[in-house]
Amino acid sequence: MSDLLGQVHAAAGPYLESLSARPVQDPDALSLLAELGGPLPASGDPAEVVERLLRIGTAAGTASAGPRFFHFVTGGVTPAALAADWAAALLDQNAFSKISSPFAHEVETVALDWLRQLFGLPASWGGALVASATFANFTSLGCATHWWGFQHGVDTAEDGLTDLPRMPVLSSGYVHASARKALQMLGHGRNSVTVCARDAVGRADLAGMRRHLESLRGAPAVLIANAGEVNAGDFDPVAELADLASEYGCWLHVDGAFGLFAALSPRTEHLVRGIDRADSIAADAHKWLNVPYESGFALVRDQSRLGAAFGMPGAAYLPGPGDPASGYALYGPESSRRARSLPIWATLAAYGRDGHREMVERHLDLARRLAALVDAAPELERLADVPLNIVCFRVAPPGDADLDDLNRRVGAALLRDGRVYAGTTVYDGKVALRPAIVNWRTTEADIDLFVAVVRELAATVGAARS
Ligand SMILES: *Cc1c(COP(=O)(O)O)cnc(C)c1O
To answer: 414-426 pLDDT, tens per residue?
Structure first.
């Protein structure tokens, strides 16, 4: 076994060193994917198998752990987090309960405590480490559902949603698709969200929300505040939404998948003012904390709500939520689970509050640099302010009659080219690019290259169209 691990170790050094220079995606390497399939082998040679997997993966894998993957919101992996993730695979703990692994249970307890400290939240809050922000939204809105059922005299964990009205959910136009997916998985349906937006960008319409809450005549409701939306990195006014929630007795959930990290810097902490008044907060660790996939977390004010919504009593061989032998499986959606706390614990222990604040601030600076380069380029047009780490802009040469078509083509050309990655969106009705900066490896040179490649491809695409 140690020979096989030696193969991985031998590949790691050259691969990691290549990340700062290699393209995000080498289109020519994708032909290697054909070597993965065929009929299920009757037997195989483990050394050859690992060699093949590493050869194909290091060539055809997407270098999203590298510094120039600006698509979606995709973090890299700090050195301490990567080493700890290897350790998690090595130790193969089942972080189900205190009995299945007292070690994993304790690391998770400390990791959750440090996360609360990192974001300035009280130690009394409960928490769950989950696979992603989608699952953190699911966990949080699962707790909200249980709370809401309780207001109607129903234990939804026991009896489900039968005989209940539809759960009212209000949010701004910034609500993320994954919050809707969470509502869909919880049985409310993704259309349960009433969007109160005052413009085409989706900014919160607080007066509209208040009118809607009035129309509910005291019926309990859930508010979702979006702390960091994906098109331009803007924020709902969390404190104002907290005021509304306390006035109307709502559950306030904050989706802070990446935006929660604004709390780390005095330059941006105002953006998340009021999060300590939320009932639940969802965020990702595999984005701005720079730990490997899969890693998200939910923080919930009333700790007991997690056990009520996600406990699974009833099997004689398993502990129930109140049992001293229980553990985090009874406070979140998964049962058997890997020790995803290890890389979180390690990156926080190794780089600390200061290291993570410095990384966030470096990204804020890089986003400003990117915005300045866009502003200085005559054929580029910035479409939004840059409150955090996303720069929303489009290619807009004078005289071009179909900018949406041009920008869609530039977006596709970027992915085909592979040197840098960014995706398109529609912002305020306009097709735009929205590079997001969350990788600890990204430097000024990477930002400069990104803008240079966009301008080069825009010129090529523009010339081919005319
Ligand atoms: C990325 C993101 C999510 C979903 O996160 P996953 O980790 O992909 O599940 C949810 N909300 C916001 C605001 C996001 O940026």
So the answer is: 999 999 999 999 9
